[in-house]
Each structure stands twice: as C-alpha cells, then as structure tokens.
Amino acid sequence: MNLKLLLLSCFAAGSHAFQAPRSTTSFTRTQLYAAPAEKVHVLPTESEVTQAVHQLVESCAKQAISKRGHFALAIPGGSVLKVLSSLDPSDDWVSKTTLCFVNHKCVDITDESSAIEAQARAKFLDRWGLTDIISLNGSSDGKKEADDYESKMKALPESKLPRDEDGFPVFDLSLVGVGDDGHIGSLYPNRDEIDIVDGPWVTAAFQKDPPSISLTLPVMQRAQTTVISAAGQSVKYPNGKAGAMRLAIADEAVTPTDFPASALRESAIWILDEANASEMELKMSTVEKAVADA
C-alpha cells in the first residue's frame, strides 16, 4: 500500500471523512488528512516558485531514470504550462520521458485555443524534443475519450508507468493545478467524478461543454511526487489564489467533495509566493528546502 494512503487511514477522528482506495476490489472509510498540510513552502517571489518547480522536474526525472531508466510525468494546463515554458532541460532526461495529461478537453488536439497538448507543444514540448506523449483521439465524446485514454495508459509497460500493489499507476511526478473553486484536473466540487475511489484511472468530466477527461483522485494521490504551485497576481486578483490556497491547505471545515484540492494535502508539495500565501500565517522557506521535500 502506498505510504501516502496509509497515512490517510491512520489519521485521528474528527476530520471530515471521505473514501480512499485500499485495493481494486474493496475500500474502507478513512479520514481526511488534517489541516494544515505539512509540505508547504512560501517563497518571496514568483520567479523563485518557478525556479523551484523547474528544479523539482529535473530532480524527479533524474531520480526516476537512475532507478529504472524512465520518467513518467503528468501535467495539466493553465498556469503550469507558463511555468514549464521557461524550463530548459539540462540533461537528456526528456528522451526517457513519457508524458500524460492530468486533464484535457475533448477537442481536436491540434487546436491551440483549447487543447492542452497543442498549447504545451507550442510552449515547450516541441522545443524540448519530447515525443513520447499519450494523446487523446481528438473527439468530443467524453466517455470514449476517457476509456481510450485509460487503455493507452494501461498499454504502457511498468518500466514506463509503474503500478502499485493495487494496480494503479504511479507517476514519478504529477504537476497539479488548483482552481478558485478547488477543482484539480477536471474534478470539480460536488460532482460524482470526485467520489471515484477504486474504479477507473481516467474519468470523463461533464462540468463544461465540451467535456474533459481527468485522472481520478486515487491516481493523483498515488504519484511519487505531486507539486502544486501558485504564484503571481494581477490588478483584479492582487493576492492571486490566496483564498483557494488557504481552503486547500489549512481550512479544517472543507472536504474533498466541496473543495477537491484538500484531498491532496498529504500527498502534495505546495509552493506559493508571498501573495498567494497571504491568507495564512506561514514561515518563509527556500527553493532548496522545497526541492528537498520531494
């Protein structure tokens, strides 16, 4: 059993309960990891948050390749693409990397206006030379796209995408974004998709039209390293996603059902700039400490 899930099952009563998977055929009720999350790093600037994510990508890649000769990476869209766009790989780890998507709209994968794959290719994947990409078919059929994407993932040998003892995939690194409403991937609050605990690896999500596919919560929780970063601000949002980060990291009242990001408290490394951490009383950290938490 993955240590992260064992820790969930050991937590004291009083936290809000949710279903966490223990095997492919059965599961038991466990407790939500109590607030606040422990692996939280507040860095002075947006550029230092970006630097930390870059170093974690390269560190996780090199560790995985050293261990078994390959690196399994999962990425979402949104601000994570901006962060990765300035990464220049310092080694040849890209040639030994398989890339999957945490979530993706069910659209033509060449459409840069809405397809995460097309956006990622334009911003960095083509420049990196990363070619081992698990792509969608490009249709608007959410159920078929989810089923086919899971089949493509399952076709990967364990040397590329390891499995745990329950048969779930274990990414070496999963980068996950958090929306203002707490959604992770395309798992939105108060929808059935967030309640999947021992079923598929990939689900269709019909929150929007066109639908999306998303890795399910048990897959997100099992990654060897999960990184959630939040940095930057605007005139409209002077503190960035400070409210969402507080709910995800430190609010004792929320549950994964009403704020899905809270389900990753124990499994993720959270890296924020000062603005995005401004609704919590947290000590400053360093890039080095954030990277060392992986």
Overall mean pLDDT: 90
Radius of gyration computed on alpha carbons: 18 Å
Instruction: Quickly give the structural class.
Output: alpha/beta
Count of DSSP helices? Answer: 8
Task: Please trace the helix and strand order, writing H or E for each element.
Answer: HEEEHEHEEHHEEEHEHEH
Low-confidence stretches: 1-31
* Tally of strands: 11
**End-to-end distance, in Å?**
19 Å
Strand line-up of the largest beta sheet: 3-11-10-7-4-5
Largest sheet: 6 strands, parallel
Shape: globular
Beta-strand proportion:
15-25%
- The helicity comes to 25-40%
Protein architecture, described:
It is a single chain. This protein has eight helices and eleven strands. The chain is of the alpha/beta class and 294 residues long. The strands form three sheets. It has a six-stranded parallel sheet with strand order 3-11-10-7-4-5, with helices on both faces. Residues 1-31 have low confidence and may be disordered.
